[in-house]
Design brief:
single chain; 5 helices; 4 strands; 42% helix; globular; protein phosphatase
């Protein structure tokens, strides 16, 4: 059985495609490609069909990740097929939980940084869109830091499904 994870940010051109690419690499490194499916979306459809922000692509590729991406908008019907919906900030978390058709679906939504090392009270990955390259690099660092804990949580679920 495939475990499905979807990362969600605002427009699906900066944070969520970055998280998708990094986590897909972690899943591949762990040998779980055949058991874990990774994608991303935005809470809004402003950029639907567009590629990731060029700065996102640049930071990803400079760090050995795939920058290929096509933006799309998250649909409430997706909850039925997803196991985990990973929000990049508390605004996304609240929006996704409001979209969830059932309380069980709302419980599938978690903040990315809740899986990482202690981040203090602020679990948001800041939106780098209106800043410079340093914001995209900081975003990548936060995503990478949280991805290890997320992988451990997903691996536990996948191994639990196989048992």
């Amino acid at each position: 059985m495939t475990y499905r994870v979807c990362f969600v940010c605002t427009g699906n051109i900066c944070r969520s495609p970055m998280a998708e690419s990094v986590f897909r690499a972690r899943v591949a490194e762990a040998g779980l490609n055949d058991r874990v499916e990774v994608d991303s979306a935005g809470t809004g459809g402003w950029y639907e069909g567009d590629g990731a922000d060029p700065r996102t692509v640049s930071v990803l590729e400079a760090n050995g990740y795939d920058g290929t991406h096509t933006a799309r908008q998250f649909q409430p019907s997706w909850f039925a097929r997803l196991d985990l919906v990973v929000a990049l900030d508390t605004g996304h978390l609240k929006a996704l939980r409001r979209l969830a058709p059932t309380p069980e679906d709302a419980a599938k939504v978690r903040l990315l940084r809740s899986f990482g090392p202690v981040a203090g009270d602020d679990l948001d990955v800041p939106d780098p869109y209106y800043g410079g390259m340093d914001g995209f690099e900081e975003c990548l660092e936060m995503v990478e830091a949280a991805s290890e804990g997320l992988l451990a949580a997903v691996r536990e679920q996948v191994e639990g499904q196989a048992a």
